């Protein structure tokens, strides 16, 4: 079992801080979820999602509930209403997501807003090398991820009711400004020479092409449910970071797996991908281009540098919270420790982009 799988797979008893009135939920489901029939048993998924996620077990079927966490929250964070909205819109377009049954914004039911969706049964791969898959089948699994992301970026977001889901245009500038500001303002986490360079270099090298699509924001192998036996994506999970943005930024975040050391997040960095029978990065980029009608992605190295920087800024924030005592988990400590390595990797991608 991989580290990610050990930390995140399966369910546990509902944690003390995340308990709620289960009888109240059962009454709500009887009124709002078509076909619901109790009795209801509630378990909590082990994964460290920022929005507590529960498995709802009934004699006939299983559901998933995602809710805002209890307590004081940062404005705009943990927006389960947005998640429910994008899932419903994407489902209506035939994109592989879990079916949303209902959204509840009445805090009187379980204490915070939540939504209930189908539980999709299948396989989640926490290791980007897909070790559980036979070598000859791996290219088909990578092709399925590639096709799914290309399909997302090809959707007409206005036609499915998401024209106001984010701010179209100028995505790189807005994101670089946001993460630079967060990095510079967190004095507790300290400064890093590579991050300081990136704060200067990235805004001066933004490519001129400006495109907009729905972007997932965290499109990795472990945020997908695959068919139990086939190389087919049944559902894309965790839409918390989704918005309208630049499709090539979203694709590069996904393709970053080729340059990402596996001990940081699911990655293939340092692995012999030819021996693993995994498509080479250039081949993977070419497949996405073919599917989205592009000849090439000339600024791919910039896009990857931006995404390493973005992830490094996120880890820098985790480091600050760990030092302040507001992020005490073992995972938070590991990510804080990985921050300088991520920042160095980000600057290496910038140098690669400059050389290219």
Question: Any overview of this molecule?
Answer:
The chain has 356 residues and is α+β, with helices and mostly antiparallel strands. Helix content is 42%, strand content 12%. The chain has eleven helices and ten strands. α10 packs antiparallel against α11.
Q: Which helices and strands appear, and what pairs or packs with what?
A:
Layout: H1 3-8, E1 11-12, H2 22-32, E2 41-45, E3 53-57, E4 62-67, H3 80-92, E5 100-104, E6 114-118, H4 138-154, H5 171-185, H6 193-204, E7 213-215, E8 224-226, E9 233-236, E10 243-245, H7 247-255, H8 273-276, H9 281-292, H10 300-324, H11 330-355
Antiparallel strand pairs: 1-2, 2-3, 3-4, 4-6, 5-6, 7-10, 8-9
């Amino acid at each position: 079992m991989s580290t990610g799988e050990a930390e995140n797979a399966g369910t546990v008893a509902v944690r003390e801080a995340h308990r709620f009135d289960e009888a109240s939920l059962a009454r709500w489901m009887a009124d709002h979820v078509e076909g619901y029939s109790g009795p209801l048993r509630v378990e909590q998924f082990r994964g460290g999602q920022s929005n507590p996620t529960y498995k709802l077990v009934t004699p006939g079927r299983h559901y998933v509930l995602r809710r805002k966490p209890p307590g004081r929250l940062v404005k705009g964070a943990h927006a389960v209403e947005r998640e429910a909205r994008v899932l419903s819109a994407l489902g209506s377009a035939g994109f592989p997501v879990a079916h949303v049954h209902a959204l509840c914004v009445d805090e009187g039911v379980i204490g915070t807003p939540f939504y209930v969706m189908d539980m999709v049964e299948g396989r989640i791969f926490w290791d980007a090398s897909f070790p559980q898959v036979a070598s000859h089948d791996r290219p088909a699994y990578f092709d399925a991820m590639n096709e799914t992301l290309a399909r997302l970026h090809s959707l007409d977001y206005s036609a499915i009711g998401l024209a106001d889901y984010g701010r179209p245009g100028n995505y790189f500038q807005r994101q670089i400004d946001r993460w630079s500001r967060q990095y510079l303002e967190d004095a507790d986490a300290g400064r890093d020479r590579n991050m300081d360079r990136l704060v200067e270099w990235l805004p001066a090298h933004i490519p001129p092409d400006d495109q907009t699509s729905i972007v997932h924001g965290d499109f990795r192998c472990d945020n997908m449910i695959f068919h139990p036996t086939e190389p087919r994506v049944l559902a894309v999970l965790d839409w918390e970071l989704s918005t309208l943005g630049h499709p090539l930024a979203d694709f590069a975040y996904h393709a970053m797996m080729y340059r990402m050391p596996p001990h940081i997040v699911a990655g293939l960095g340092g692995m012999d991908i030819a021996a693993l029978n995994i498509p080479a990065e250039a081949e993977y980029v070419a497949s996405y281009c073919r599917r989205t009608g592009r000849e090439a992605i000339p600024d791919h190295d910039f896009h990857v540098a931006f995404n390493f920087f973005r992830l490094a800024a996120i880890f820098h924030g985790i480091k600050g919270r760990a030092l302040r005592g507001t992020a005490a988990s073992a995972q938070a400590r590991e990510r804080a420790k990985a921050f300088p390595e991520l920042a160095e990797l980000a600057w290496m991608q910038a140098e690669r982009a400059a050389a290219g």
